[in-house]
């Protein structure tokens, strides 16, 4: 009595499992069995879905291309080679058992490149929908990371560029430049052409030694090199650059030409073309 009870329970459980498996794959037409697997051809047999494998067929999905369907598929219980459940003893009658042929799967292939070259998106791929480009957090650094090109940050999935660095420090004694890593660089300039102890960048007479930097008329040009007054065209006068800008007579010049009593008097009647008056 107990033996038959055990057999009945086992058969009931087996039939229940078979019924449950069939209930999960019920169909009326082949279209009801679509599984979106490129390596199978779907068929509705005896009101239940069954996939016929397509070994060696080209396959892929929204994220992979150039794949090949797996060719070596074996029955779940017996291990025999198969391309469909029909090779594994499937029949429409009850009691055939849940021996099935696993669906062929796509293998190999080349992943699709979803890189959109946008530093402000996180690129990924969904096998169903394809490439995804999700914006990364606003304020994240982007751009070429070159300090000379400004500071660039992400905003709503876009890289927003700032103005390039302005390295002019308005200091004539520095050579201004920009380093891609360090940013603005201001190198000191220490050239002193006339060797008077004052660098050219601040020397009011860079080519004439004048350590005192005297500038009587305040025009920014040192007395040592300033021609602050127009020449009066008289050879016997020396232009003196001071607050009054005077023409100093050079009597020696006239005496060398006209004798020891000659004087430089360009404003006196009787002077010659050099401004000299003989005595």
Describe the structure concisely for a colleague:
Helix content is 11%, strand content 24%. The protein contains 2 helices and 16 strands. The chain has helices at 2-24, 251-258; strands at residues 40-45, 48-53, 58-61, 64-69, 106-107, 110-111, 121-126, 130-135, 153-155, 158-160, 174-179, 183-188, 237-240, 246-249, 263-264, 276-277.
Number of strands: 16
What is the count of helical runs?
2
The helix/strand series, from N terminus to C terminus, equals HEEEEEEEEEEEEEEHEE
Query: What would the average pLDDT be, to the nearest integer?
Result: 82
Into which percent range does the helicity of residues fall?
A: 10-25%
**Rg, alpha carbons:** 51 Å
First CA to last CA: what distance? 168 Å
Approximately what portion of the residues adopt beta-strand conformation?
15-25%
Low-pLDDT stretches are 1-23
Which sheet architecture does the biggest sheet show? 4 strands, antiparallel
